């Protein structure tokens, strides 16, 4: 019996992630789907499609992949493959279903487990009808800096590919054309979801909502929704290095010279900031861990000092400045 390299079938390395395996499977399934083939190429496509589905049945399931990887380590090139002990050999080339049955190699490893997991009629039906994995869907949600910092619950509308009534596929373009059989099916489904944005989510955060993407069919799993968190334009505060936040604080000359305690409205709430005596324009005050969070790293919040001279000063104030001016020039 020939050993089948399922990684080679899908064209991925043995270190491939679950997402890379799923992406490779979808690409090949589209390319070799029997419904889009004609003439003599149809039979060849059916065999290739069968191999692709079998490979994904193994590598797309964590427990199946682990068992297969352990087996693969013990297999040597050029040797005839022998089923491992107690593997539960059982073929799936059932009457009338050879086109989509599993290989003897697959059955020798997963036969009994696969049978008990799928069940009688369900197994027969899925062997006859190829499995379709749901597409992943990407969408963007715009939030204010305050919403990103505090966390928010928002409603988002996404377009999800639906299953084609003609071929059972679920990959539709924006024009409602099935990319599997190229026929005009129903348009994409508009779905509204309520999503929770965790607090301190930095602009550009990608949230993965498992199973909320395109629908699968014939026991194929649903795709995932990847939600990109974008920040609305903000004039008062700036994001630096994805997780640090910087804003300006305008103070008067006497506050810069003498020092002061000032209330500042930040994206995470009002804080009391102490201005040290002799603070200069452009100087930055750092508030630790009050920025955004990326992985386990918390950013900081920086307040940049800007000194403003009031235009409508009283005569008494101008006299005092004159005294200061005279004092400085007398010293020099």
Automatic annotation (TrEMBL):
Record key words, sorted: Chaperone, DNA replication, DNA-binding
SUPFAM superfamilies the record matches: Chaperone J-domain, HSP40/DnaJ peptide-binding domain
Domain annotation J: ranges: 5-72
UniProt-listed PROSITE patterns: DNAJ_1, DNAJ_2
Top-level taxon of the source organism: Bacteria
InterPro entries, sorted: DnaJ_C, DnaJ_domain, DnaJ_domain_CS, HSP40/DnaJ_pept-bd, J_dom_sf
Entry keyword annotation includes Chaperone: yes
Gene Ontology MF: a single term: DNA binding
GO process terms (BP): DNA replication; protein refolding
One Gene Ontology cellular component: cytoplasm
Cross-referenced SMART domains: DnaJ (SM00271)
Protein's UniProt name: Curved DNA-binding protein
